[in-house]
Amino acid sequence: MNDKNRLFRTTRSTDPEVQESPIHFLKSLSTSENLFFIRNHFPYPTLNSKISLRIYGEVYKPLVFHFEHFKQMKSKSLKVMLECAGNKRSKFEPRVYGEQWENGAISQGTWRGITLNELFKYTGIKSNVQEVVFEGYDFGERPDGKHASFIRSLPISKALHSDTIIAYEYNGSPLSFKRGGPLRLIVPQWYAMASVKWLKNIYLVEKPFSGPFQTDDYVYYPNKTNKDNAFPVTTVNVNTTIQQPLNFSKLGVGEHEIKGISWSGKGKIVEVAVSINDSEWISADLKKNSQGYTWTPWSYKWKVKHKGHYSIRAKATDSTGSTQPFRAYWNQKGYGYNAIDTIYINIE
Question: What pTM, to 2 d.p., does this model score?
Fold first, then answer.
């Protein structure tokens, strides 16, 4: 598909399309449509004009909802950040297979849609339900040679969370095809693989779902040679990206502003600390942010008097006490990278 806006993003793959947001240059709390990152597993699906969403399985009344039905229901708007589980994968040592994301597999904005609670009022839910399964229209061949649709599930408790929604608008406009429209799932606090795009079917099951994007991909495999001690990728780790200055910048003696963003799926950001050349950690200034599902901007005034090479590190701590480690939790597929962010600056 032709997309003139790809010029604003860094392309990681063209088939399927994978593009990285220019995160170092984003200043707004809402990412514009032309800057939002793209992560597809398959070619774009072909959709007809009569989009419907079928709900079935362990419900009392299976139903098919058409797009116009959603506009007639009670809606909810939420500002939510989405981060690909592979964000910053290129930083893992030793290196791992997969899209070699740097810092830009993350974007955010305001989503409007219908809660699953609202939808299930029409179908009812049987008491034996353990999970809710979401199937997108996209399908194709996986790297392992098998064909599949993109299908994932949520535990019933997460599916029924009051802020889990089926979105049909983004930043006040109809949800675009490239953002997963006309209907996509939005799951705050979890990595973006949970927010299934191009929704086609929702079915409720009485036992854990085991599709390839559930039990093969999006799983932490901590050992290099086997799949022992594996566990699923779910909640977004506490994390930070230094936006300015850019890594390996050349600056002069004087005062410079270090700026960045921090986020967490577990709680609100309560502190960001900066260290210059591994000196003591000093708290940065946080921009007040009452919206718990978005990143928190921060800044630090750095006064440098001497020429030379400098390292600048930044780490965040959230309201649960989680803080960034010096070394990320290595895993075979490179998910959840959240080591302390570091850049290097030359003062001339």
Answer: 0.95
